[in-house]
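Review form for a predicted model. The reviewer records the input and the model, then writes brief findings.
Reviewer: anonymous (R2)
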Amino acid sequence: MQWDTLILGGGVAGLSAAVQLLRSGRRPLLLEAAPNLGGRARSFHDHRLQQQLDNGPHLCVGAYHHFLSLLEQIGSRHQLTAVDLPFWSEPTGWYQLSCPDGPPPWQLLAALWRCSVVQWHHGPALLRLGRALRADSVPDDQQSVTHWLQQLGQPADLCQYLWGPLCQAALNEPPASASAALLATVLRRTFLGQRGDAQILMARVPLNDLIARPARRYIEAHGGHLMTRTRVTALEQRSGRISAVITSQGQIDTSQGVPVIAALPLSALRRLLPQWSESTGLHQLSFSPIVTVHTQYQRSAQLSTPLAGLPLNPSQWLFDRQTDPAGGARITAVISAAYRESSWSAQRLLSTVHQDITRLLPQLAQETPVFRIVREQRATLAAWPGSSHWRPVSTTPWHNLLLAGDWTSTGVPATLEGAAMSGVVAARAVVS
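Model under review:
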């Protein structure tokens, strides 16, 4: 087995780095501790529900250029479908954010014009926000989204029904504790970037079929190598380099300066490089949880849209997963920034989600669904004000060690796009 670059970690960041290296003529060897690739963007077979379940549903936008480029390379870009972003609450009923395919900023103006919660008297406040975004002025890194929106005079109802849900979806953090600088970046890249950047995209297949399986096929077909069930247990250091990588399958020699890309979870890197992590402030970074509740009902029922946002309910997002119209309803509920809900009992979670589902599908009220709960305590990096200061760049004090991961300093939140971008940055550093 011949290889010239070592990648530690087979999540989106590691896979992105591997694909980029292969495109540049390198031959990477990728190690992954789990049996399968994909990291947190994975799916699994649930024996109770007898179906493939995503660890947590993911939405993309057209502005995810690096992630979409990765899917294009591995041949699964066609598995994403464009959707509108509908919301429902008892006070407002249904409303949606639907961005037409047009040049910015007209796509944003058209989306707001069509959104029923936006009224004429909101015009001056929206113009203030638009000017702030177009001026490319970055909010203070210590400023919260709530404070920033108040400074820009955003009405309470727009914050509750529009900016708040978008903040929680993009940053996995409520506005009061989310970084205004990060949200401004997301809004600018999504609505003021290129044509099509504001398009909302959703996978029509399980995440393994979108990312892990096609990535494996691409890497192996183009001369790369993969080793799963191979956990990195230690990094040996000598003369300013990583001289060896110790794994559960044995030692890998890198003493001749073989490039090593550590595309590992932040918690794993802290364990492998504790002193450096402490000195660089990586301990300052925290995590935000997500709880996903998959439900299966006997009675057939479908939401009127593939997904629905519930801005006033614990289940912020409902995804309709029913593929057979004659089969029972399959609804997945996602609770972002689940600091409170992640500690709830299974029964309390199910009861809460069931109530949210039956607000839209009352015919299911008398059923108790079969369910599966996924609690991802470290779903994303906590996008708190000031957190960007502690996110590390890809280079390290070791000449042959580079970092990749959605938690690194990408300038965007810890998303699929951030992960894919970090892998490209690390791979380009290797090649250069």
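Findings: The longest strand covers residues 370-381.
Further findings: The chain has a mean pLDDT of 94.
Recommendation: see findings above.
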